[in-house]
Every structure is written in structure tokens, then in C-alpha cells.
Amino acid sequence: MRSKLLFIFLSFLFFNTSILAQDDYEYEIEDTSASRFSIGINVGAFFANNNTAILYSGSPRVTNYGINYIFNRQDLKQTFDNYFVHPYSIDEYPIESSYKTTAELGIHLGYQFSNLIAAFIEFNSIQLKYEQYFTVAIRDPQNSNTLEPYRYEKFPIYGEESRFNLNMGTQISYFHENETNAYLALFGNINGVKLKRNYFILNQIEYEIQHPIDNDFNRKPGGIGYGVGGGLGLKFSVSEKIIADIYYNLYYTQTNLTEFLNTYSYNHSIGLRILWKKQKTTY
Questions:
Q1: How far, in Å, are 87, 121, 215 from residue 118 at the CA level?
Q2: Distance from C-alpha of 83 to C-alpha of 80, rounded to nearest angstrom
Q3: SS (H, E, C) 68-87
Q4: Any bridge partners for residue 233, and if so which?
Q5: Alpha-carbon 167 to chain mean position
Q6: Rg for the chain, CA atoms, rounded
Q7: Which domains does the chain have, with CATH numbers?
Q8: From CA 21, how far away is CA 264, in angstroms rounded?
Q9: Residue 231: half-sphere exposure toward Cβ, Cα within 13 Å
């Protein structure tokens, strides 16, 4: 149903883009160079919503093969016993799971109908990182503090996730003068997400946390999602053939990571596009 709504949204968007382009063309006679293709690269920062980051916490809430399972594996238990020496237990999983801000890299194709309207399609790749800590409580018989007989040790836990965003939409100018163009962007979104790796490190050894799909350990969480977005941008000419485009995008998209972690949420990105055009265009 949502994919049908996205199709309707994109159809409406491109239909109105064509109408606006035609109206603007009829409103004023423009140089043929005002309609042109551009191609370029996106370099920016992506701020992911943290509602799916809990998957990398190692908690029994998200996987049966997390930290507790690894601590109790018969082939590994002696290794942990030797390290901790005294009785131990997992005291706390990561409290606030979150992604790190990461780079957004991609390509951008645009077609400038007129000074007022442009259509575009772009593909951005994102490699998200997760880094938090879980806590182990060790009961040390030599601890003289009877009120707190435990000592606590924290260990890092990591996650790696790949995403892509395919955006298709229009840019509507609300200010243009000489070589400068400020615009509003509206677009539909198709995105993909894939868990690459989840592990923790203890005593300089990496332990993999598994997330099998239907008990198949060769399959990892991930899927395709849909959504919409909007943004603001400012274009200005750097040279006769090069345009710089500072942009901000706000996404409202589904992140389809697992059956239980597939909700719609807001994500953000900000960055710079470098666009190459075939011929000089006056904005």
C-alpha cells in the first residue's frame, strides 16, 4: 500500500514539475542554455534516526545469540572464566543505543527546465557505525566494601550497517539572481538497509553477535523501505562549467531492518554537491 502511495506521490510530483516548467517557459522567453543536464557528486553528513540502533546492543530483546549467549557457550565459557577469575554476570546492556554521524557519498543527475524548476535523481551511500558499552559485574571476594561487593568493567560493542537512499524529485526556486539560486526540494525515496557486522571486544578478542533470519545464519537483517523528503539548497556558479550546491535534506522514511524494526522515522543530511554542466546557465 505504501509503495503505491509513493508511486502516486512521484507521479504527482513529476506531473506538476512538467506543468510548472511549461508555465515558466510560456511566461518568459529564455535562452536555450537555461535548459540543461548536470551531473555531479554529493559529499555530506548523514544523521540517522536511532530507533533501529538497538539491534546492535547485544541484548536478548533483539537476538537470542547476543552477549549472554556468547558468555554461556560451552566452548567459550572457560575463556571468560579465566579472564574474570571471580563470579561474574552481565550487569547492564547499552542504555542509549545510537548511531554515529557518518559520511554520505553519492551521485546526482539533474535537468534544469528553467530558472524556476528542475528535476533530479540521486543515489547516496551511507556506512553507519555503532559504538556503545555493556557492563559486567564481578564479585571479588577480596573487596572489603560489604555495601558494594562488586566491581564493574565496561566492554565495547560495535555495529556496522550499510544503507542507500535513492531520491527522485524536483527543485523549485524561490530566489534566483545572477549566478545564485535558492530552492526548495521535494522528493520520493527508496532506501535499502543491511546489517554488515555486530561484535564486541573482550581481552582484545572479537566475538561475533549473530542475527539469523528464520534460523538461517547465512542471512542477515535488512530490506527495502520507502518514504518522502524535502529540503533546502543554495546553488552558485564556481566557474563556467561548475556549480556548487549546498543542501539540507529531511527524510521521513521506513527503515526496514527487521520484522520488528521497520518503522517510519525522520533522518537528516547536510552536504555539498559539485555539479558539472555542459554550458553556461544564468540563474
A1: 66, 10, 48
A2: 5
A3: HHHHCCHHHHHHHHHHHCCC
A4: 183, 247
A5: 13
A6: 25
A7: 2-277 (2.40.160.20)
A8: 32
A9: 29
Entry pTM: 0.84
Q: Are strands 180-202 and 150-177 parallel, antiparallel or unpaired?
A: antiparallel
Amino acid identity, position 276: W
Neighbours of 151 (CB within 10 A): 15
Closest C-alpha among 61, 49, 19 to residue 191: 49
Query: Cell numbers at residue 63, please?
Result: 537476538
- The three cell numbers of residue 261 are 524494526
- Per residue in 190-216, pLDDT tens? 999 999 999 999 999 999 999 999 999
* Range list of H helices, the chain: 2-27, 67-71, 74-84
Q: Which residue has the cell 540517522?
A: 48
Amino acid at 89: S
**109, β-bridge pairs:** 39, 121
| DSSP summary character for residue 96 | S
CA dihedral over 233, 237, 241, 242, signed as positive or negative: negative
Cα–Cα distances (Å) from 158 to 94, 196, 198, 199, 265, in that order, read 11, 11, 6, 5, 23
pLDDT, tens digit (0-9, with 9 covering 90-100), for 99-158: 999 999 999 999 999 889 999 999 999 999 999 999 999 998 877 676 778 889 999 999
